[in-house]
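Feature request disguised as a bug: please show the residue count (108) next to L-rhamnose mutarotase in the output. Example input:
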Amino acid sequence: MVKRYGSVIAVKPDKLDDYKYHHANAWEKVNDMIKACKIQNYSIYYHDGLLFSYFEYTGDDYDADMKKMADDETTRKWWDLVKPFQTPLDSRKEGEWWADMEEVYHLD
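Example output, currently without the count:
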């Protein structure tokens, strides 16, 4: 079964070019970890100061896979690099960096 996830975060206007550069040149080990954690069709879109992410999770233990990713040293270094480019939304839930979005429509 595939579960879809969408989330949103603001990007600092003066850091948008840096954010785009690093994602155009993402580290191979980071991409490999994303795939190892059963994430596919991962995309990030930009509009009016906001980044929107979408991905599909194909595993059966999301929390364990997200912990695996968070425990990965290379991934943590990547997050340390790109997090300063972002500004979390005030409306996000406690514990979120990217704010989860509610899916309101999907066409199969």
